[in-house]
Amino acid sequence: AQRIENQNIVGSDETGIKVNGKKGWFWTWQNKLMTYVAFSNNRGFASIQTNFINGFHKAVLVHDCWSSHFKTPCKTHQLCTAHLLRELTFFEERYQSKWASDFKTLIYKALELKKNLIQIQYEKPTPKRNEILLDLKLLLQTPVPKEQKDLCAFHKRMTKYDDYIFTFLFYQYVPPDN
Q1: CB–CB of 74/60 below 8 Å?
Q2: Contact between 110 and 166 (Cβ < 8 Å)
Q3: 100-116 residue pLDDT tens
């Protein structure tokens, strides 16, 4: 656990499983070199604290936006773009949502930019990154239909955590997904 705790990037996720007929959770924390797996009876912050009492003070924590991760001490966060894209695809299919399609397009644009950034561009403002951040701000100011409750909840969550959607465009070593 200590080796993961001291890394500069940590991806985390949790998945449900039944053990002896009871619901439990397998938690994973990983980077390119190592993976730490732990079982817990709950999906809350207590599971993180049990395994990483100090959190990840040096790390960018990459995760799926589960609230427990935001309680974890870390340098900053990166929301997993794979998780976001999966949710946005659901909204496109369920509601034919142009807003969800526009958000997906913006994520793909950011992923493409990531492929082409060089080290020096992470350290100073770049026009393409600034354009993506402005587009995100405008997108999050665009309302979604109130009757689409799950899309509204997603919109609210993205507005709350907007600083963590494109963290990967500011750190060369940070991947866009967990």
Answers
A1: yes
A2: yes
A3: 999 999 999 999 999 99
Cα–Cα distance measured from residue 163 to residue 137, given in angstroms and rounded to the nearest whole number: 10
The pLDDT value recorded for residue 84 is 98
End-to-end CA distance of the chain: 18
Both structure tokens of 138:
């405008």
Which ranges of the chain would DSSP assign to H, the alpha helix? 2-5, 45-51, 67-70, 81-95, 98-116, 119-122, 127-141, 149-160
86's tokens: 């999966």
Burial class (CB in 10 A: 0-12, 13-18, 19+), 101: middle
Both tokens of 175, joined, read 């991947």
| pTM (whole model) above 0.70 | yes
- Classify the phi-psi angles of 118: left when phi > 0, otherwise alpha if psi is within -120 to 50, otherwise beta: beta
139 token code pair? 């997108």
Residues 90 and 92: their CA atoms lie apart, in Å, by 5
